[in-house]
Amino acid sequence: MKPKGIRKVCWLLVTTLIIAAMMLPACAEGEEVTEEVAEPPIKNPTIFIQATIGDAETMDPAYAYDSASNEQIQTIYDPLIFYDGASTTEFVPILATEWTISEDGKIYRFKIREGVKFHNGNDLTPSDVEYSFERGMVQDYGMGPQWMIFDPLLGIGTSSRTDDGLIPLEDITNAVEVDGQWVQFNLAAPYAPFLQILAGSWGSIVDKEWCIANGDWDGTQASYKALNDPSPGGSPLQSIANGTGPFMLERWDAGVEISLVRNDNYWGELANFERFITKVVDEWTTRKLMLEAGDADWVYVPRAYYGELEDVEGLTVYKDLPQLTADAFFFQFDISPESPFVGSGQLDGNGIPLDFFTDIDVRKGFAYAFDWETFINDALTGEGQQVASPVIEGLSYYNPDQAMYYYDLAKAEEHLRAAWGGEVWEKGFSITIAYNAGNERRKTACEILQAGLFAINPEFKVGIQVQQWPTMLRGMYMQLLPVFIIGWGADYPDPHNFVYPYMHSSGDFSEWQSYSNPEVDALIEQGIAVVDPAERQAIYYQLQELYIEDVPSFIVAQLVGRRYFRDWVQGFIFNSIDPAEIGHVYTLSKEY
Amino acid sequence: MELRAYIVRRLLLIIPVLFGVTLLIFGLLQLFSPVERAALYVTDPKQFANIAEVIEKYGLDQPVWVQYGHWITEIFQGNLGWSKVVSQPVTSAMLNFLPATLELAIFATPLIIFGGIFLGSKAAAHKDKAIDHATRLGAIVGWSLPTFWLGLMLLMVFYGLFSGLFPPERLSTEMNIVVHSEAFTQYTKLHIIDAILNGNGRVLLDSLRHLVLPVITLTVVNLAFIMRLMRSSMLEALGKGYILTARAKGLDENTVVSKHARRNALIPVLTVSGYIFAGLVNGVVITETIFNYKGLGWWAWQSAVNLDISGVLGFALFNGVLFVFTNLVVDLLYARIDPRVRLGGKVT
């Protein structure tokens, strides 16, 4: 290797790069001249490009339970019915042209649209519809959305797996039947949100023939056994798709981007874009620059960065969009003796006993010590509202007049003086509460609670610990955490989807808290089983009241969010239950 | 013949290295409880109810040797597992993310190494002159710049301010569609090479344009090291007696510096260069993330933070092989550069 050779190679590379760099601006300048006019030309007019975080996990509608996958699937596949615009209770026909519900609320019948073709050219038939739901239940991925199909069809809490093995295949196949051009669902008991569930991406209709050809469930017991509860990536439809929707899957570069192309044989009006591209861009500044440059039409904007886009030109912003999600502080009623977060484990001023939060005065004292106003104004920059219970605004039977806790140190003191026969007040306590790393909002909430309690009595010592998700998960599961802050996003916009996890003794959160109130359990079970709206309203109003009375947890805020689009994007419809932040890409267009 | 035996012996080292590395990772895994490791599957409160099921299904609570045994058995069947963070088999994740990283490494490594050698020897040859001071300053600045800061700055200026001059990602939307069209064959998935093979100038220019900023970022940050190393090593060489002899016998300064001094000064630089190249090939997390130039580094980082064990192990295997190979190549190059070094353990 001669030194001159080294030098030559080096210079050659440098000059190549410089020349390439110089040539390209020259190419780009032609476009720039026209950009001087008031409205810049629309970039990529036939393509909608979004830059977001987090890629889809799967293309299988029965398996998908993350919003990134749900969004793609509901663009590729069609459900039987879908929400009417912004409504969460009215529906429009999609693959079903009409439907009937029996008086007892247990039989739902849908007439299937004729003349619809799948992307591969196959005809849609009622038996595809039957297959779609049966296949989902047969697969029944443990971490997936199928509980929403099992709950109404086979009963609350059922699944394909029991301690004695798989449930009989007939139980599944009898739940959905074809009757001429109609498909009938036989519910185990009335289930008011059933239509809302059908409108989710788990209600997508797949092509039976194509599924079987690709190795999916063929109707036999053997195939049921083989395909039940697949490991990640184990579904035959993991990375392929064949729906009836307005877009078709063109390419999925997992981790990088998903490209959909327009379905030119769509049964309805064709979509406005030839392509719909979703890019996964982890770094916020990169996404922001892409939006500013017009290389993305919408980007995911974390709440903390709303301010950075305040003065950016060429954007359309939609504000105050209520989110169907609610963070809460959860109290642990039965702390594990192994918990490192309870200090001495006794009420001696250096810790708390393991059953500390079973005293309702402690819980009420904590709730009154939380300064909602500061939290909403500072941590949420005003973009949130206080709500009384998990039945948040936007869900049916939300009671806007429900009394709630408020920041009142005198009341907090009153309850904490009464707690544990006055011992809490006298000796003080010391605990540690936890939030998951990266969530600044929850961190601030912890700090506000800490400050409130300290202000009442300097002997009330609250430590705050940031934990990575795996650690926090373990802390919650092993009941190590005395108090933790976490939240839930809606699957479907019905109060049942919230009261169950937050209040029922078998609910996701309350079971871990060891919270149990038989009256609450009975009301929740009754609420989902009755059909009459007035009766349901009475039940959910009562549950909201009970939540305040019992304080198993308290909601810190319901968030409202924003969406930032390029100003050439038109047609955004906000529906609070939509997994896609851009709404349905089908309604969007790019024009001035 | 001896050389071949030497190479074979060195390559056989891969087996114990890989065994050691994977065993170490499995050992470290035991620091996480089964519930923590279930977090890979339980990413949302909606999945809380299934934790026990997940632990049982994936055997997360089994003894470490049982889990390692399962993994090894799968490996021998050619199955590296499923990379959940990118929803694809580990093997295809590696194949899909390697090209982007290789592209960066192929462009950045020569710039770093040859640029560093060139500037370093210039600085040494002109010790305490203007060029020495200038490169020293450059080295301090380059070495101290945090990658994320430099990367973001470059992006803000050359993409933000100059309206899209050097954009992030690997290709523009338009060219990406071309690359994935039927008319374009992806032989290597290295866009530059594919563009040349397809004779497509627009794709070539577009991918070069997307390479500029990440390559500059990597070069600035890494060049300083090689440059300073070369300088000190060169100064040492220039002080040797044979240089005095060379000068005394009337050789021109250029020959003295580039033939006699530089060649002898290259040995330590070569060692480090090997590691720099290997370091670039196994991915550069920050650069890949900022420029959304997704390669192995980004994937490995995602796997690690999500405790995606199959991904981490797959990456470790790749790394083990990579480093054994790099070391071998560096050793072979020693002999090429310095005839005094003889491989195979015998002095001839």
The low-confidence runs of chain B, each spanning 5 or more residues with pLDDT under 50, are: none
Distance between the termini of chain A: 61 Å
Strand order of the largest sheet of chain B: 1-2
The major beta sheet of chain A can be summarized as:
6 strands, mixed
For the biggest β-sheet of chain A, the strand order reads: 15-19-14-18-16-17
Structural class of chain A: alpha+beta
Greatest interface by residues involved: A-B, 75 and 78 residues
Biggest pleated sheet of chain B: 2 strands, antiparallel
Q: Helical residue percent of chain A?
A: 25-40%
The N- to C-terminal Cα distance of chain B equals: 14 Å
Residue windows where pLDDT falls under 50 for at least 5 positions of chain A:
21-37
CATH architecture label of the domain at 88-308 in chain B? Orthogonal Bundle
Strand composition percent of chain B: under 5%
Strand content of chain A: 15-25%
Mean pLDDT of chain A: 92
Molecular structure report:
The complex is a heterodimer of chains A (592) and B (348). Chain A is α+β, with helices and mostly antiparallel strands and 592 residues long. Chain A is 34% helix and 20% strand. Chain A contains 19 helices and 21 strands. Chain A has helices at 3-34, 67-76, 126-139, 147-154, 169-173, 194-198, 208-213, 221-227, 284-293, 360-368, 372-379, 409-418, 423-427, 440-456, 469-477, 496-503, 508-513, 518-529, 533-550, and strands at 47-52, 81-83, 91-93, 96-101, 107-112, 161-162, 165-166, 176-179, 182-186, 247-253, 257-262, 275-280, 298-299, 315-331, 384-385, 429-436, 460-467, 483-489, 553-566, 569-570, 589-590. In chain A, the strands form six sheets. Chain A has a six-stranded mixed beta sheet with strand order 15-19-14-18-16-17, sandwiched between helices. Chain A has a five-stranded mixed beta sheet with strand order 10-11-12-1-13, with helices on one face. In chain A, strand 16 (429-436), helix 14 and strand 17 (460-467) form a beta-alpha-beta unit. Residues 21-37 of chain A have low confidence and may be disordered. Chain B is mainly α. Chain B has a domain at 88-308: Orthogonal Bundle (MetI-like fold), CATH 1.10.3720.10. Chain B is built from 16 helices and two strands. A two-stranded antiparallel ribbon of chain B has the order 1-2. In chain B, helix 10 crosses helix 11. At the A-B interface, helix 1, strand 10, strand 12, helix 9 and helix 15 of A face helix 3, helix 4, strand 2, helix 6 and helix 8 of B.
